[in-house]
Structures are given as structure tokens and as C-alpha cells.
From TrEMBL:
This is Homocysteine S-methyltransferase. Residues 5-298 form the Hcy-binding domain. GO terms for biological process: methionine biosynthetic process; methylation; S-methylmethionine cycle. PANTHER family: HOMOCYSTEINE S-METHYLTRANSFERASE-LIKE ISOFORM 1, ZGC:172121.
């Protein structure tokens, strides 16, 4: 008999949990072209086996949570490549099923359905700026249908990730409030502020009294900034903290290229743990080798 899967919130109360790393860098390393606006989400339609292979690779490396390839997926984006509403919903659900199949029957492996920011679907770097000129109601209307479809595929958690703006965080949390699935809320950040310029203390406070949020924190920020952000998230929210920095390289949205040195190192893990982190992994340009080293550092 297959043992029941432990709720992720319960696992966080017992100790740290390892997240995976970047999906796109592993797919690119496997030879896939991710240059279009759908990014890795395109392969949900064109090469689902490739997405599943990356999930399996991360689990083999020691990850316990697979984040789905739905970060840049949207109804509008799929429509631009000819997918109707029915197919678009199927592709969103497929992102969850691929990760679930890769996780297998293990009681301590989980699937996080990625809910990326509105700016991600614009494919112009807007997720690193926020302030799209939309109201909270308009942002809620964008996020709610996608989140509802993802939740219908029964992930263990919705990963509301790389959010650049407090207003968008409030809108997304409102959009998912009626869904029977826990969430984590993770901001993109720099120098103690969201990418839209709000103090991180204000951003983390959004989650403090929300029982649906099982963890709050940061992702896709420079690794050297992570420990201060983790400590602040723990202090302000009183919740377990999620942290998954990028490699430390810089992304140029105009040239669509990375530059600068990589500063991600598993040796930083102990400081993140001490500061309150319980979900730890990597984001852009952090691959399976780094997640393997991180997992060994933790365990």
C-alpha cells in the first residue's frame, strides 16, 4: 500500500525541505530552444517528456518539491500559438501531472504549481519592475482563472512566485482565496525592497494573518541578499520562510542573455536556516548539480 503524502505544511514544521532549481536552464542544457514568449511553458505542448525529464533529474538530485513549468503559462500566451481554451486548460493541468508522475508515490515529495506574475507573460522583463498600470481588480481577474485550473489538478501547494509588487501579491492572494489548496508567497527583490520599490517588511506583512499562506519569502534575487530577506520574512510574518535565489548572474531583458559571475553556493544554506528558512532551493541558472550539493549540505 502506498503511504499517504505528508501535507507540506506539516513537513515544514518538522524540518527543512529542498526545492528544485531552474527549469529553463536544464531544458536549455538539453538542447531546447526557449527563445519565444512562452519560454519553458511551450514545451508543455511541444515536448512534455522533456519537462518530465527535468523534474525527475531534480528529484534524483535530492529535491523534494517540483515547481511546475507553468510560470509563464497563460490563456493569452497559449492562444497566440493556436491553443483554444480547452487545450490551454489541459496544458496547465499537464504541468501538474508531469511533476506528479515524476514525484512517484513517495510520501515526502511534493508538487508546487507555479503561479508567476502578470509581467512574466509579457516576456519583456516586466516581472522585474512591477507597476504594470493595472488595478488590483484587473490583476485578480488575470490570475484567478489560471490559478483555478492549476488548483483543479490537485498540486500540494500553489507557488505564487517572483511577485514584484505588493499590490499584485494582494490581488493574487485574493484570487486564490476560495481554492482549497495552500500557497506560498515569494517576492522578487533587491536591496531590501520589492522590484517595484516597496519595503520588504510591508510585502511580507501581507501574508502574516492569512492562514492559506504556509510560507513566505523571496526568490530570483541575488544569493548574497537572501539571508537578510529571510530573517526579515521570519520576523514580520511569523511563518516558515521560502528562499530560492538565482545564480547571482544578471538578466538583460533586451538582449535576453545572462551576464556577470555566479555567486550561488550551497555553503550559504546554514545561514538561511539560522535565519528561518524552511523551503530552500534555487531559481534561474541554478541547476541539478547545485541542488544536489544543497541537499547534501542540509542533510
Amino acid at each position: 500500500m502506498t503511504p499517504p503524502r505528508i501535507p507540506l505544511a506539516a513537513a515544514l514544521a518538522e524540518g527543512p525541505v529542498v526545492l528544485d532549481g531552474g527549469m529553463s536552464n536544464e531544458l536549455a542544457a538539453d538542447g531546447h530552444d526557449l527563445s519565444d514568449a512562452l519560454w519553458s511553458a511551450r514545451l508543455l505542448r511541444d515536448a512534455p517528456d522533456a519537462v518530465a525529464a527535468v523534474h525527475r533529474r531534480y528529484f534524483a538530485a535530492g529535491a523534494q518539491v517540483a515547481i511546475t513549468a507553468s510560470y509563464q503559462a497563460s490563456f493569452g500566451g497559449f492562444a497566440r500559438v493556436g491553443a483554444d481554451r480547452v487545450e490551454s486548460e489541459e496544458l496547465l493541468r499537464r504541468s501538474v501531472s508531469l511533476a506528479r508522475e515524476a514525484a512517484g508515490d513517495a510520501a515526502d515529495r511534493w508538487v508546487a504549481a507555479s503561479v508567476g506574475p502578470y509581467g512574466a507573460v509579457l516576456a519583456d522583463g516586466s516581472e522585474y519592475r512591477g507597476r504594470y498600470g493595472l488595478t488590483r481588480a484587473e490583476l485578480r481577474a488575470f490570475h484567478a482563472p489560471r490559478a483555478e485550473v492549476l488548483a483543479s489538478a490537485a498540486p500540494d501547494v500553489l507557488a505564487i512566485e517572483t511577485i514584484p509588487d505588493v499590490d499584485e501579491a494582494i490581488a493574487v492572494l485574493d484570487a486564490v482565496a476560495g481554492l482549497d489548496v495552500p500557497v506560498w508567497l515569494s517576492y522578487s527583490a533587491a536591496e531590501g525592497h520589492t522590484r517595484a520599490g516597496q519595503p520588504l517588511a510591508e510585502a511580507f506583512a501581507v501574508a502574516r494573518d492569512n492562514p492559506q499562506v504556509i510560507a513566505v519569502g523571496v526568490n530570483c534575487l541575488a544569493p548574497e541578499e537572501a539571508v537578510d530577506a529571510v530573517a526579515l520574512a521570519a520576523e514580520v510574518s511569523g511563518k516558515p520562510v521560502v528562499v530560492y535565489p538565482n545564480s547571482g548572474e544578471g538578466w538583460n531583458a533586451t538582449t535576453r542573455a545572462w551576464s556577470g559571475p555566479a555567486t550561488f553556493s550551497p555553503t550559504r544554506v546554514s545561514s538561511w536556516l539560522s535565519a528561518g528558512a524552511r523551503l530552500l532551493g534555487g531559481c534561474c541558472r541554478v541547476g541539478a548539480d547545485q541542488i544536489s550539493a544543497l541537499s547534501k549540505e542540509l542533510h
